[in-house]
Amino acid sequence: xxxxxxxxxxxxxxxxxxxxxxxxSDRIEFVILITSYNNExxxxxxxxxxxxxxxxxxxxxxxxxxxxxxxxxxxxRYVASRGMKKKCKIIHNPTRRLQCANFYSAISTFDPKxxxxxxxxxxxxxxxxxxxxxxxxxxxxxxxxTYGNYKVDPPILSSYCAPxxxxxxxxxxxxxxxxxxxxxKTFYAALFHHIKTEDLFYKGNFFPMAADxxxxxxxLEMASRGHIKFIDEVLYIYNVANxxxxxxxxxDFARECEMYIRAMPPYxxxxxLF
Length: 274
Description:
The chain is of the alpha/beta class. It is 37% helix and 16% strand.
C-alpha cells in the first residue's frame, strides 16, 4: 500500500513537471523595443507604461539614439530606482543611427520565437494589460504579426487602422493599398529575420525615414496567408505633440522614402515561420 502511494505521488509529480515544462515552452515571451531620441519630456511615462505591464514574460530593450538632451540619463535613473536593470536593457548609441538601423541591430539579435512589440520613445501603452491581451492573441499559433489600434494624444487626429480587404490579402497587394497597419505593431522576431538586409537600404544606407513601412511591408507579405491579426481595441497611445515627429520634420522626404519602398517587389508568402 505504501509503495503504491509513493508510486502514485511520483507519477503526479512527474506529470506536473511535464506539464510545467510544456507550458513554459508554449508561453509567449515579449521584447518591448523602444527607440528614442530627445524625448526627455515623455521618456519616463513611456518606460513606466512598459515596465508596469502585469504579464510577467517580457523584457524591455531601450535604445537611446544619441540624444542631446537628458533622455538617457532620466531613463537610466528611473530604471535603477525601480530595480529593473535586469528587466530593461538600455543601449546608448555613441552616434545617431536612426530608427531603421536601430531596428536591424536590435531585432537581428533577438530569439526568433520572441514577439517584438514596437513602442516609440515618446509614446506609451494605455494600461498594464496590453501584453496580456497580446499573449491571448498569440496563443493562436497561426498568428505571426498583429497591428492596430491606437488613440492620439492630444486628440487632434483619429486612428486609421483597419483590416485589410480580402482582395489585398489574396493578391499580396499591400504596397498598392493605403497604409493601415500601424500601432500597435507586433511580430515574431523570426519574421523580421526573413527580411533581406539590402531591402532596408536607401541610397547606400538604412532608410533614414519610413522605417516602419520598410520592415512592415515584407512582414505583411510573408504572413499574408492567414497569419495577420488586426486588433480593433486600443492598445497604444500615439503622441503627436512631439515637434520632431517624421511627418512634421520632413513630410516630403518621408513620402519619397515611402514611394521607394512601395515600388519594391513584394515578398512571397512563407509556408512556415519556424
